[in-house]
Design a protein that fits this description.
The termini are far apart. Helix 6 packs antiparallel against helix 7 and helix 7 packs parallel to helix 9. 76% of the residues lie in helices and 2% in strands. Strands 1-2 form a two-stranded antiparallel sheet. With 241 residues, it is mainly alpha-helical. It has two domains: 51 residues, no CATH class; 176 residues, Multidrug efflux transporter AcrB transmembrane domain (Multidrug efflux transporter AcrB transmembrane fold, Up-down Bundle), CATH 1.20.1640.
């Protein structure tokens, strides 16, 4: 039983059929929880009880590895669709003129984007485990937001790389904007670090900081290394590109 499953609300709003017996049982449980875990600051009242719907959201669905796998797969497929089709549509006029090489570059970069997204998913799950943050509905929600930010960063860098045909030029254009974007994200959620409710700090501040750290490492260290390798291979084997 975790504090995330405890909801303070009016009983008539959540469940009009809560009986006096159930109220008594939950009140006793809340009192025991407040004694065992005084750091939570719980103050049991008659309207403090456990809600089964919240159990379903926070535990039953997202804690199942199969469901987590589905969410991760959908995230990767979404990045693949955006990376391949959207960028390809922009270059259809060029393809009609016979310049298929640009489409091949887009396809290669899209595949790499999906691969790095998968790596990021693994890193985020590992980070959650290290921080002892359970994988549930709330953590998965913020988890997915971080994947969205990461795919957006990769998309912009990939587009700049394709247009400039140079890793150095691409990162010269985008490094400062990406850093400012990450910094603004961190600053905007900084007040959550001092929030009285620990679950807010744990599920929002910690996960977002973790995601931004992994995002910047992958985008500024791993991704440019891979793009540099592609640039070298392209210049050696396909001089015409």
């Amino acid at each position: 039983m975790t504090a995330a499953r405890i909801v303070f609300s009016n009983k008539n709003f959540l469940n009009s059929e809560v009986t006096a017996v159930i109220e008594k049982q939950n009140l006793e449980f809340m009192k025991k929880l407040s004694i065992d875990y005084p750091e939570t600051g719980l103050k049991p009242t008659k309207n403090s009880f456990i809600v089964n719907d919240m159990d379903l959201i926070f535990e039953s669905f997202a804690s199942d590895p199969f469901n987590v796998g589905i969410i991760c797969t959908l995230a990767i497929l979404s990045v693949a669709i955006v990376s391949v089709f959207v960028t390809s549509i922009f270059e259809i006029p060029i393809l009609k003129n016979g310049k298929l090489s640009l489409f091949i570059n887009i396809l290669i970069c899209s595949i790499i984007t999906c691969f790095l997204t998968l790596i990021t998913l693994i890193e985020l799950v590992a980070g959650l485990r290290l921080l002892r943050i359970p994988i549930n509905g709330l953590s998965i929600m913020n988890f997915t937001l971080q994947i969205g930010l990461f795919s957006e960063y990769l998309f912009q860098i990939t587009k700049a790389f394709i247009l400039t045909k140079s890793v150095k030029k691409a990162y010269t254009l985008l490094t400062i904007p990406l850093l400012i974007c990450s910094l603004s994200t961190v600053v905007s959620i900084l007040p959550l670090a001092f929030h009285d409710i620990k679950i807010v700090k744990k599920y929002f501040f910690d996960i977002i900081i973790l995601g931004q750290g992994i995002l910047l490492f992958n985008v500024l260290v791993i991704f440019p290394a891979i793009l540099s390798l592609i640039e070298k291979l392209r210049s050696r084997k396909i001089p015409a590109l």
